[in-house]
Amino acid sequence: MDMLLSSQPNADFYTLTQYTINVACINITNTIKLINVLISQSASNETARNHYKSCLEHFSYGEGALDDLEYSQKLLKKGDYQGVSIVADAIEADVKDCILGRDGNG
Question: Which family does the record claim for this protein (predicted)?
Answer without folding.
Answer: Belongs to the PMEI family.
